[in-house]
Structures are given as C-alpha cells and as structure tokens.
Design goal:
With 52 residues, the chain is an all-alpha fold. It has one domain. It contains three helices and no strands.
C-alpha cells in the first residue's frame, strides 16, 4: 500500500510531463509538415548543382 502512495504521484507527474511536452511541440510547430520533411531527405540536391 505504501508503494502506491509513492508510485501514483510519480506516474501522474510523468504523464503530465509527457502531456506538457506534447503541447509544447504542438505549439512550436513540430507537426506542421511531417510528410514534407520525410520526403525532403530523399531529394537529391546535388543533381541541380551539376547542371550548371
């Protein structure tokens, strides 16, 4: 029973910390263009430089 008195606030605190981190990432624009970021790595910018 004493373990629950310790673990419940710890679990609630970690959950609140995770929720706060999610809302911070949402507010700072981390999820604005997830598909574009994933496809940008596949683009080969070196080919544009070789044509010059």
């Amino acid at each position: 029973m004493t373990a629950l008195l310790f673990l419940m606030p710890v679990a609630l605190g970690l959950g609140a910390l995770g929720l706060g981190a999610f809302f911070w990432a949402l507010k700072s624009g981390q999820f604005e263009d997830p598909k574009g970021s994933a496809e940008r790595i596949l683009l080969d910018d070196d080919l544009k430089d070789q044509d010059d």
